Each structure stands twice: as structure tokens, then as C-alpha cells.
């Protein structure tokens, strides 16, 4: 019994949300049931991910392999719940459960009618399933399918609000993201052309043998994939769609889009870079230098752009552009410490940015004020929301005791090991800039007199969601134990290919 | 062990209690503040005395795979003693100064929390803990800096955060490099980098100096300090003349003696530059101070200058220089807090903040100006005051280190100090008194009592330097 559950768990965590997504529209009018189902399936996902993680940790990193349809690789599609996959599954489940709690009973106002809420949840679960799939898949074409599913559901989520601006943002996103998907597909096509394999492991082996015969094709594949995922994960300067999309979406959707969806594409990119091309080839083609440089530019540019934003949600959206820079920069540090840092930072940013977006959403809902300046005095009237925002901000800046610091610490160690002084300086400069764009919000909220209005903290499920996320930030910052261990192991496995 | 935990937690616990108390209960709040300040002070005295007696206690923990430890040694104990004692004085002074002012609850909450954080800096046993508290100190004191809530205060606050976070950034890089090279960040067991001869050590020292130098207000990293004078006077006195800036100075002492060690320092080319930077800051700081008309700004630039006295002593790498540095840490802090307290009383009772308009102030505030006069003499380094001894050892250290011109710098600085303060005292007593005596009433008494007591303490240390000698000796013996 236990053995069969374990063996099927990697596919279950992907299928469960997808399945619920398909049956959800039948209950569209029974709101509570819909919400209950969503929270139930997210809880199930968290339990499943936690169980998988405990197994993988106990097995010392030996992955659980699931062959779809019983076809072994290289013919069939392979799902691999290794350290990296399990790590990301945990992040997905850990973030999407609080977010769905936050959405409970809170969406009708932002989205419109009940039917639209049900539609929102369908897209939300589809996105969750697709992300879980990205975490465990080991197949190139499968990645493309999941990327498409995720992209289209993101697009729907962006347009969920009944507002012309939302439609415009969604349309821009659709065009940009489709362009990205096309490039990714092209890249996969090139890889298949020269290797004849779609399984990542086999493709990688083959690539290591034949890349010298087709250097240009490999170049094309690398650049297509880099740019394709670059558009999707909003690497500066391919980020133009992100601020509109993430700031106009309903708050839970913003949280998921900024916190998780972007990370899904980054994980795919990581798999392509390290599991398909491999560290050796990356260095031969100088991809790691490009990544480190692009990351550094993104950190500075994103932060500076965030500084100029008046609207709180847009400021947070630009901050995502900057924080993605950190992760990309970490991809370019081809050593264990740097990769550990980048993975941990990815998880930390997922939790922190969803906290920030949810808190910002709660403030927006309570006050109706969009701009940072107008939120003066909100700290005393909405203590829990603002406390969550404060913890999130400190975490993002990288103050010790919060999760961001540990990510930055390892990124710094990795940068020094790689001898990359530029990235050391940029990591620190990014922190200072981050303080510059987030601390004024906190200062205004706590230390400035506000208008005499009756602003209140959101309801109980929303408060619980915020508290859960804050707890995650602090726990990851103080006792990251097994989580950090998973990240370390994932980093070691990604590098062991050479 | 228990004393250490209680010393560190009193401030935070008290601060949180104050934070949830109703705004209107000001008497009860003052009582709570006093109780927790006293307990923090008593327990840090206990910790310090135990450390001087040779006891060793260590609290070790880990966050995110990074080991931190609290492990007070004599240097930390001295800093803890200074900070906690002055904290008590400032708390009493604040009861007078803040009476009737706005946002008292926020003020006392963060004053108490900063107390804990400062003691955390003092008692930290490795670089991770030191960094943690050093960074937290910026945030814990920020609400005190912007207490006025005016646009000027907000601007000063932004500057404060920007400078300090940038410094903390440089420090973080330095710590990461140290960790990479030495694999160990503990202060106990000799200098961290003792057996680590590498090419980049000079640059590492530069990074550390920048990191801690921001809070120690080494020129040109000092700009935040004069700006931070918008804070209420007790905050300027305690935090921006002692606690916050001392955590920077303390950090540099740690870098010199616990991270590099004086033997390794002597071999680095950058370390021969450091006394020059300190000397530059001493002279330029005090010269700018003489040109400031606003008394608090004058005191701020003077602080910048005086902090570098301590650094100069540390940079000589001589036992006598370190003796001077530690003595000056103790002496200067008592005098400077007295000066700030006087400035606060003058501003509160007469409304004058500019030196040029303080003619005749002395007649209405005789005791205040007397204390101011005593402290001014101390800043020059006159004999009955404690700074004479520290200056003596600083000069001795400079000469012992083979750098006699530095002793001349100290003498020159003493003369400029005289130019800076003596005219103020003289003008204060010039002319006829037009105002009645303004030193009456409970509120002034609360401000005046700590001021006079501190001046008396400074005098008695000057007359009997033996009372602080065991502590100073313990620090010097610890490192040499």
C-alpha cells in the first residue's frame, strides 16, 4: 500500500490539481464547495510534497522515478522526483496553500460574479498542476506542454478582473509569452534534431558527444531557450509585460504569478542549462558569463525602476524583475554554493513576494488606495497586514533572521568562489536599493499620520494565510535545516553531471 | 549565563510591554521603562564584573547553518558597561526631556529595544552575531531618529538608513570573505585570520573599515551623523555620541584585534594608512565643529573628531595605544553625554539652539553651564578630567609606535577643542542676566540630576583613574 502510494506520488501531485480543475466548473454555483475543494487539493499537495521530500532526504538523494504509461525512457515520458523536483514541489505547495486560503471568500469583489470566481479557480489549479509538472518532469517536450498550460492559465488569471486595463495587460502578456513559447519550442526542436532524444538524461549524454559536430545548432538551441524562458520569467530587458500583468491581476493571482509562475520557468531554464547542456558545455559556450551579467543588470535596473513607481503593486512587480536577476545571477555561478544560494533565494522570494502581494492586496481592498503615499497611517489600523508586509520587506532586503539573508549569504559565498567581484557588489547594492524602495512604504504606514478612516485587517482566513507565510519566512531564515539540505543536494546533483 | 540572557532581554521585553500599554498612562509607562532599564544595567554590570573576574560564558546557536555565539570578553564587557550605565542616565533624563512631547510610547519602546540590540553588539562572540546586531541597530534606532516626523527628520532618516545599510553591505562582503578564508568567525581563541596570509588581506581590511567606519563616522563616511541631529536630544546624546557610533568603533577594535590581530595588522600596508585617516578625521572634524553655530551640530562634528581618537589609539597597535583607546572610550562618553544633556536643557529652557545667541544663558542656567564648562575642559584634555589620562596614553602609544607626529595631532586637536568650547562657556556668562533662574521645577531636576552626576563621575575618574583601570588592563591583557 505505502509502496504503491510512494511510487505514484510524483504523478499524483501533478494530476490531482489538474483533475480537480476539470471537475470544478460543475460546482460553479456552490462557492463554499469550490473553495473547500481547492484548499483540500492544495493541502493534499503539501502533504504529498512533504512526504516525497522526506523520502528523498532519507534516500540520500536517490530520485523516485515514475514512468508515464509504464514506458521506460527513452521512449516514454519520465517524471523524476529528485532533490530539485521535490524542493520546488515544496515551494509550490507551501506558497499556493496560503494563497488559496487568502482567496477564500475574498475574490468576488475583485473578480466579479461567482462564475468568474469558479473560472479563476480552474485556472489557478491548472497553473498549480503545470508548475508541479515542471518540477518533476524529465522530458523536453513535456516541458514545452507544461509551459504552454502554465502560460495560458497565467494569461487567464491576469485578465480575471473585469477591467479594461486587465484585458490590455493580458493581451500584451499573451503575445509576449507566445513568442517565448515559440522560441522554447524552437530550441527543443534544435536539441531533438541533433540528439534524437527528448529525455533530458539521454539528450544530455548525446549532446556531450556530438556538440563539436554541430556547434552552431547548439548555439541556436541555447540562445532560443535562453531568450524564450527569459521572456517568460521576465529577465530584464524582456520584462516589459510583467509590471502591467502582475499589478492588474487580482491579488491572489499577483501573488501566485510573481511568487510561483515566474519561478516555474526559471526551474525549467535551470534544468535545461544544467541537466541538458551541463555545466561543462555552459562554460564552453560562456553561457554562465552571460547569465551573471544579465542577472546583475536586471538587479540594478529592476530596483531602479521599482524606485520610480508610485503605485504599490507596480513597485512590487518591478521588484520581482530585480529579484529574478538574483536568481539568474546565481545560475551563472557554476558552483555548489552559488546554486544552493540561488535555489534557496528562489524559494525565499516565492514566499516573500507572495506575502508582499497579499498584504498589498489586503491594503488595497481595505483602503481603496493604490499609491504608496496614500497609505500613510495604515500600519496602526491594519496591524497584522502591515506586520506581514514589514517582515516580507526585511526578508527581501536580506536582514539576518529572515529567509532572504540565507539565500544572499550563499550567493555571496558562491560569487566569491567563482571570483566574480561584480556580482558581489551588485548583490549588496541590490539590497540597499531594495531597502530604498520598500522602507518608505513601512515608514509611511507606521510613522505618518493617516486619515481618520476605518480601515480594518482582512477576515480570519486571510489573516491565517498571512501568518502562515510570515512563519515560513522566519522559519526559513532561522531553522532552514532540511530545506537548505535539499537545496544543497539539488545543487550538488545539478553539478555532478560534469 | 542567566545574567547574560537577562541583560540582553530586559530591553526587548520592556520595549514590548511599553508598546502594548495605553498611550495615556505615562506615569506607569515611565515606571516600566525605569524598571527594565535598571534591570538591564544591573545585569550587564554583573556580566561585565564576571568577565573581568575571568569567568567565561558562552551561548551558541545556529541560524541557517550559520553559527552565532554570545561570548562577552573584556572589550565587550567594557562597551556593555559604558552603554548600560549611560542608558540609565539617559532614561532618567528622557523622563524630564520628553515630558509633554508627542509619541512618547514609540520613543520609549524603541529606546528600550535599542538597549538590547546595543548590548547584543557588545556581547557578541563572533562576526555573525556582531553583524546581526549591528544591522538590527540601524532599524531599532531609525524610529528615534525620525521622532520629530518633520520632512527634515524623514530626509535625515533616509540618509541614516542609506549610509548604514551600505556600510552593513560592505561588512557582509568582508565577513563572507573572512568565512571563506578562515572557515571560522569566532573571536575566542585568538585572531581569526592569524594564520591566513593572503594577497587580498589589505582589501579585506578596507572593506571592514568601510563597513564599521560608517557607524564610527570616519570621514568621508560621516555625513549621516550631523543629519541625525534632528533626533530628540537624549537620542543624540546616547545613540549618536555613544551607543550607535561606539558599535562602529567597537567593530573596528574587533577587526584590528580579533579578526586580524595586531601582529598581522603590522604587516599590512593599509594598516599604516589607517592612523592617518584617523588623524585627518580628528583635525577636520573638530575644525568643522568650530564653524557650526547650531550647538547640536557643533557637538556632532566634535563627536566625529573624538571617535577617531579612539580609533587612532587602536591603530597604533601598541599596548599603550590600546590603553588610551579604551580609556578614551570610557572618558569621552561621560563627557559627551554631559555636553549633549546641557545642550538639551539649554534648548528646552531658553529655546536657544545657536551658540551665537547664548549670551547670558549661564546666569539663568548656572549649574547646567557649570557642567558644560567642566565637560569642555575635559574635551581639551585638562588634568582634573578623565580625558587627560586617555590622551596621555594615546600620545604614549603614538610615540611607542614610532609615529610621534600623531601626538602633535592630538595636541593640535586639543587647542582647536579649546577654541571650539571655551568661547561658548565664556559668552554664556557674559552680560547681565535678563531671565530669571530657569533651573527650577521637577522636569528640569530630572534633566539636571543625571547631567551633574555624569560631570561628577567624569571628574572622579580623572582624579582617581584607578577605578576604571582594572577594566582597561583586562582588555589590554586580553589582546596583548
List its traits.
heterodimer; A: 498 residues; mainly alpha; two-stranded antiparallel sheet; 20 helices; 2 strands; B: 480 residues; 19 helices
Topology:
The complex is a heterodimer of chains A (498) and B (480).
Chain A: H1 2-23, H2 31-58, E1 64-67, E2 78-81, H3 83-103, H4 108-111, H5 114-136, H6 140-158, H7 164-195, H8 200-210, H9 215-232, H10 242-248, H11 251-284, H12 287-307, H13 312-331, H14 336-367, H15 378-381, H16 383-397, H17 403-417, H18 421-447, H19 460-478, H20 481-495
Antiparallel strand pairs in A: 1-2
Chain B: H1 2-20, H2 26-52, E1 59-63, E2 66-70, H3 74-97, H4 104-123, H5 127-145, H6 151-182, H7 201-213, H8 224-227, H9 233-260, H10 262-267, H11 270-291, H12 295-315, H13 319-350, H14 361-364, H15 366-380, H16 387-400, H17 404-428, H18 442-463, H19 469-479
Helix pairs in contact in B: 1-2, 1-4, 2-3, 2-4, 3-4, 3-9, 3-13, 3-18, 3-19, 4-5, 4-9, 5-6, 5-9, 6-7, 7-9, 9-12, 9-13, 11-12, 11-17, 12-13, 12-16, 13-15, 13-16, 13-18, 13-19, 15-17, 15-18, 16-17
How would you portray this structure in words?
The complex is a heterodimer of chains A (498) and B (480). A two-stranded antiparallel ribbon of chain A has the order 1-2. Chain A has a domain at 308-498. Chain A is globular. Chain A contains 20 helices and two strands. Chain A is an all-alpha fold and 498 residues long. The mean pLDDT of chain A is 88. Chain A starts with a helix and ends with a helix. Chain A has helices at residues 2-23, 31-58, 83-103, 108-111, 114-136, 140-158, 164-195, 200-210, 215-232, 242-248, 251-284, 287-307, 312-331, 336-367, 378-381, 383-397, 403-417, 421-447, 460-478, 481-495; strands spanning 64-67, 78-81. Chain A is 78% helix and 2% strand. Chain B is mainly alpha-helical. Chain B has a domain at 320-480. Chain B has a two-stranded antiparallel ribbon. In chain B, strand 1 (59-63) and strand 2 (66-70) form a beta hairpin. Chain B is globular and about 70 Å long. The model of chain B has no long low-confidence stretch (mean pLDDT 87). The A-B interface holds A 394, 397, 399-401, 405-406, 408-409, 412-413, 416-417, 424-425, 428-429, 431-432, 435-436, 439-440, 443, 446-449, 476-480, 484 and B 63-66, 106, 128, 131-132, 135-136, 139, 143, 146, 149, 154, 157-158, 161-162, 165-166, 169-170, 172-173, 176-177, 179-180.
Amino acid at each position: 500500500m505505502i509502496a504503491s502510494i510512494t511510487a505514484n506520488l510524483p504523478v499524483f501531485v501533478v494530476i490531482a490539481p489538474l483533475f480537480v480543475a476539470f471537475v470544478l466548473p460543475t460546482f460553479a454555483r456552490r462557492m463554499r464547495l469550490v473553495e473547500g475543494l481547492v484548499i483540500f487539493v492544495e493541502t493534499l499537495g503539501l502533504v504529498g510534497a512533504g512526504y516525497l521530500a522526506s523520502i528523498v532526504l532519507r534516500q540520500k538523494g536517490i530520485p523516485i522515478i515514475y514512468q508515464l504509461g509504464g514506458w521506460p525512457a527513452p521512449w516514454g515520458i519520465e517524471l523524476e522526483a529528485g532533490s530539485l523536483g521535490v524542493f520546488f514541489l515544496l515551494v509550490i505547495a507551501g506558497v499556493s496553500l496560503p494563497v488559496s486560503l487568502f482567496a477564500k471568500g475574498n475574490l468576488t469583489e475583485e473578480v466579479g460574479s461567482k462564475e468568474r470566481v469558479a473560472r479563476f479557480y480552474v485556472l489557478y489549479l491548472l497553473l498549480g498542476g503545470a508548475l508541479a509538472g515542471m518540477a518533476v518532469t524529465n522530458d523536453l517536450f513535456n516541458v514545452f506542454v507544461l509551459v504552454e498550460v502554465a502560460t495560458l492559465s497565467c494569461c487567464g488569471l491576469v485578465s480575471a478582473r473585469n477591467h479594461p486595463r486587465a484585458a490590455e495587460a493580458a493581451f500584451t502578456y499573451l503575445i509576449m509569452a507566445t513568442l517565448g513559447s515559440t522560441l522554447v519550442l524552437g530550441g527543443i526542436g534544435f536539441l531533438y534534431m541533433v540528439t534524437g532524444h527528448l529525455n533530458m538524461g539521454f539528450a544530455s549524454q548525446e549532446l556531450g558527444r556530438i556538440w563539436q559536430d554541430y556547434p552552431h545548432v547548439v548555439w541556436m538551441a541555447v540562445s532560443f531557450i535562453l531568450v524564450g524562458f527569459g521572456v517568460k520569467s521576465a529577465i530584464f530587458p524582456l520584462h516589459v509585460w510583467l509590471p502591467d500583468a502582475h499589478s492588474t491581476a487580482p491579488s491572489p493571482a499577483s501573488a501566485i504569478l510573481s511568487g510561483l509562475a515566474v519561478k516555474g520557468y526559471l526551474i525549467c531554464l535551470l534544468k535545461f542549462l544544467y541537466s541538458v547542456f551541463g555545466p561543462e558545455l555552459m562554460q564552453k559556450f560562456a553561457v554562465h558569463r552571460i547569465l551573471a551579467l544579465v542577472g546583475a543588470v536586471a538587479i540594478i535596473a529592476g530596483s531602479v525602476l521599482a524606485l520610480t513607481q508610485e503605485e504599490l503593486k507596480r513597485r512590487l512587480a518591478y521588484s520581482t524583475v530585480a529579484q529574478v536577476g538574483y536568481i539568474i545571477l546565481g545560475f551563472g555561478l557554476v558552483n555548489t554554493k552559488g546554486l544552493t544560494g540561488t535555489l534557496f533565494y528562489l524559494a525565499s522570494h516565492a514566499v516573500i513576494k507572495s506575502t508582499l502581494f497579499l498584504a498589498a492586496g489586503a491594503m488595497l481592498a481595505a483602503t481603496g488606495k493604490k499609491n504608496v503615499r496614500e497609505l500613510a497611517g495604515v500600519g496602526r489600523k491594519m496591524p497584522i497586514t502591515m506586520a506581514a508586509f514589514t517582515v516580507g520587506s526585511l526578508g527581501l532586503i536580506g536582514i539576518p533572521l529572515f529567509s532572504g539573508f540565507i539565500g544572499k549569504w550563499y550567493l555571496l559565498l558562491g560569487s566569491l568562489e567563482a571570483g566574480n567581484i561584480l556580482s558581489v557588489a551588485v548583490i549588496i547594492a541590490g539590497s540597499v536599493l531594495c531597502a530604498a524602495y520598500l522602507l518608505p512604504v513601512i515608514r509611511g504606514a507606521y510613522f505618518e499620520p493617516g486619515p481618520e478612516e476605518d480601515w480594518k485587517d482582512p477576515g480570519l482566513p486571510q489573516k491565517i494565510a498571512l501568518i502562515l507565510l510570515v512563519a515560513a519566512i522566519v522559519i526559513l531564515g532561522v531553522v532552514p535545516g532540511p530545506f537548505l539540505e535539499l537545496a544543497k543536494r539539488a545543487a550538488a546533483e545539478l553539478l555532478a553531471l560534469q | 549565563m542567566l545574567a547574560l540572557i537577562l541583560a540582553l532581554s530586559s530591553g526587548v521585553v520592556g520595549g514590548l510591554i511599553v508598546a502594548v500599554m495605553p498611550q495615556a498612562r505615562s506615569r506607569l509607562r515611565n515606571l516600566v521603562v525605569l524598571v527594565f532599564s535598571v534591570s538591564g544595567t544591573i545585569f550587564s554590570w554583573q556580566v561585565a564584573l564576571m568577565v573581568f573576574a575571568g569567568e567565561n560564558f558562552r551561548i551558541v546557536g545556529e541560524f541557517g547553518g550559520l553559527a552565532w555565539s554570545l561570548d562577552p570578553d573584556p572589550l565587550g564587557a567594557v562597551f556593555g558597561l559604558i552603554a548600560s550605565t549611560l542608558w540609565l542616565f539617559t532614561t532618567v533624563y528622557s523622563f524630564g526631556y520628553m515630558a509633554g512631547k508627542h509619541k512618547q510610547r514609540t520613543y520609549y519602546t524603541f529606546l528600550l529595544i535599542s538597549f538590547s540590540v546595543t548590548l547584543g553588539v557588545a556581547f557578541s562572540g563572533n562576526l555573525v552575531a556582531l553583524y546581526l546586531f549591528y544591522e538590527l541597530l540601524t532599524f531599532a534606532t531609525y524610529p528615534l531618529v525620525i521622532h520629530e516626523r518633520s520632512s527634515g527628520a524623514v530626509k535625515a532618516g533616509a540618509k541614516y538608513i542609506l549610509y548604514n545599510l551600505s556600510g552593513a553591505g560592505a561588512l557582509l562582503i568582508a565577513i563572507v570573505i573572512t568565512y571563506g578564508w578562515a572557515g571560522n568567525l569566532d573571536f575566542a581563541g585568538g585572531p581569526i585570520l592569524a594564520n591566513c596570509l593572503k594577497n587580498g588581506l589589505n582589501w579585506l581590511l578596507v572593506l571592514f573599515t568601510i563597513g564599521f567606519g560608517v557607524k564610527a563616522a570616519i570621514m568621508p563616511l560621516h555625513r549621516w551623523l550631523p543629519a541625525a541631529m534632528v533626533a530628540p536630544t537624549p537620542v543624540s546624546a546616547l545613540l549618536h555620541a555613544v551607543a550607535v557610533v561606539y558599535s562602529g568603533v567597537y567593530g573596528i577594535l574587533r577587526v584590528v584585534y580579533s579578526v586580524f590581530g595586531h601582529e598581522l595588522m603590522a604587516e599590512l600596508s593599509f594598516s599604516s594608512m589607517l592612523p592617518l585617516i584617523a588623524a585627518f578625521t580628528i583635525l577636520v572634524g573638530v575644525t568643522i565643529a568650530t564653524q557650526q553655530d547650531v550647538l547640536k551640530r557643533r557637538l556632532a562634528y566634535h563627536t566625529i573628531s573624538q571617535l577617531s581618537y579612539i580609533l587612532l589609539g587602536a591603530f597604533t597597535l601598541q599596548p599603550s595605544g590600546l590603553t588610551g583607546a579604551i580609556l578614551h572610550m570610557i572618558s569621552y562618553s561621560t563627557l559627551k553625554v554631559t555636553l549633549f544633556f546641557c545642550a538639551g536643557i539649554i534648548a528646552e529652557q531658553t529655546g536657544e539652539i545657536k551658540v551665537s545667541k547664548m549670551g547670558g544663558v549661564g546666569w539663568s542656567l548656572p549649574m547646567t553651564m557649570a557642567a558644560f564648562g567642566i565637560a569642555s575642559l575635559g574635551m581639551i584634555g585638562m588634568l582634573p578630567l578623565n580625558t587627560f589620562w586617555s590622551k596621555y596614553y594615546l600620545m604614549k602609544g603614538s610615540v611607542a609606535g614610532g609615529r610621534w607626529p600623531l601626538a602633535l595631532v592630538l595636541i593640535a586637536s586639543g587647542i582647536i577643542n579649546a577654541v571650539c568650547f571655551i568661547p561658548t562657556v565664556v559668552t554664556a556668562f557674559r552680560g547681565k542676566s535678563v531671565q530669571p533662574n530657569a533651573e527650577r521645577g521637577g522636569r528640569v531636576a530630572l534633566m539636571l540630576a543625571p547631567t551633574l552626576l555624569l560631570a561628577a563621575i567624569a571628574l572622579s575618574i580623572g582624579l582617581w583613574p584607578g577605578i576604571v583601570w582594572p577594566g582597561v588592563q583586562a582588555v589590554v591583557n586580553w589582546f596583548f
